[in-house]
Amino acid sequence: MSDPYSTRGVSSPAAPLSAPGQASGTRCQPPAWTLPGFGPMTRITTDFGDFPAQTLRVGDRVRTRRGPFKRIVWLDRYVLDEAFLACHPEALPILIRPGAFGPGLPLAEVVVSPAQRIHGPRMQPGVRPQPAGLLTSGPRIMRKPETIFTYTLFHCDELVDVHVTGLWIPIPPRAPAAPAED
């Protein structure tokens, strides 16, 4: 059973990575970054108020759009070091400034993974949330340069839209764990 409070280091070795079939010493080819998550100081609404993502724990209850507070059943933190970010710039966080989606949306800065899906300013039926990395064409949404960064990723027991500084952000349920091999 994995530790729900674990911190996973995601990094690359000091030497540049080589793709299979490439000569050693060539620059790495960045894969698509697919992990969602929140920046450390992005405030998530819980039953005790708004708290930075870095302080969340398994068992905390987060506000959902449907009304009830839902318990966090799984949480992880991914630390991206300087070597990893130099090799994989597509993993750099997305900064969403106040008012990016209209007055008060969001109320304060929100920092998310480029793979974190976000609803637009007006949640319309049939309109799917977009990855934050695709929203950087506006003047208030941009990549945030960092040399080291930590994402907090969490799940409840079902698909929920969580309140994040005035925005509703979808959080899918955790995928079932693969069965253990004998």
UniProtKB/TrEMBL annotation:
Residues covered by region (Disordered): 1-30
Pfam assignment, any one: Hint_2
Domain of life: Bacteria
All copies of domain Hedgehog/Intein (Hint), residue ranges: 37-158
Segments of skewed composition (Polar residues): 1-10
Listed name of the protein: Hint domain-containing protein
Organism: Rhodovulum euryhalinum
